[in-house]
Amino acid sequence: MTLLQSFILGLVQGLTEFLPVSSSGHLVLVEHLLKVPTSTDITFEVFVHFGTLVSVLLVFWNDVVLITRSVLQGIFSPSSVRELYRTSEHFRFGILILFASIPAAYVGLTFEDQLSHAFADPKLVAVMLILTGLVLFLTRLKRPVEELEGKKIGWVKALLIGIAQSLAIIPGISRSGSTISAAIYLGVAPVQAARFSFLLSLPAVGGATLLKTKEMVEVGVVPDGILQLLLGTLVAFASGYVAIKFLLKVLERGRLSWFAFYCLAAGVLGILFI
């Protein structure tokens, strides 16, 4: 992979990770168009995902600090857990995020080999993009919910949102699109759904990055690949930050379904021309 290719792929990752159009699907399709050598190694994909993870940390830094602090308080003072769950929104959010991360962790660890091969199939990605478009379009059928009217995320809703995230491990199915849509279907206000979705990405992407880093240390990384990884990660971070800010504004206007038309068009074009 050349530096130009890593720059383009990092830009694609950053812009599409949080916009509900499937970053992994776009990476597969763009890699095919750029004639990046086919490989079942997803190291680059994991590290550009890490770049977007850092952008989430930057945008939601206050939430992350308060959630971490409250969860640590519960860990070091078990007798206060019940009271914290009742009175602290950040503690509840932290516990529910960890709970909702279980399905994706199970799917990722159990089906790692099959998922790696899926990243090399652009036709499958195109079909999954169409599915993502349909999921987004159907949010139009849900009555708009204001922030104060939205239902709180509890254990059942967190589990269902987590299952939606686990399905998004398949390239072409948008992680943000599936989790935000699932939350909206469950009566959660769009902006609150996005907040939960973005924070939910932290354990999934962080865990995947740690596992891949361990694997890279054990196997070794060729020197020629380090610059590409760093460049792609930095570009993904910067463009991811912009994408988060943009999507939050779109959700405030209740326009999530607009992205459905893009996904449907991209999927159809992918089937016809790739």
Key features of this structure:
274 residues, mainly alpha
Fold and architecture overview:
The mean pLDDT is 85. The protein has helices at residues 3-18, 23-33, 43-59, 61-76, 81-87, 89-100, 102-110, 112-118, 122-137, 155-167, 175-185, 190-219, 223-252, 258-273. The protein is built from 14 helices and no strands. Helix 3 (43-59) crosses helix 13 (223-252) and helix 11 (175-185) runs antiparallel to helix 12. It is mainly alpha-helical and 274 residues long. It has one domain (3-273). Helices cover 77% and strands 0% of the residues.
- The domain tally reads 1
Which structural class fits the helix and strand makeup?
mainly alpha
Strand content: under 5%
Please trace the helix and strand order, writing H or E for each element.
Answer: HHHHHHHHHHHHHH
Mean pLDDT: 85
Tally of DSSP β-strands: 0
The radius of gyration is: 18 Å
Number of helices: 14
How far is it from the N-terminal to the C-terminal residue, by CA? Answer: 20 Å
Percent of residues in helices: over 70%
Characterize the largest beta sheet: strand count, sense, and whether it forms a barrel.
Answer: none
Question: What global shape is seen?
Answer: globular
Spans where pLDDT lies below 50 across 5 or more residues: none
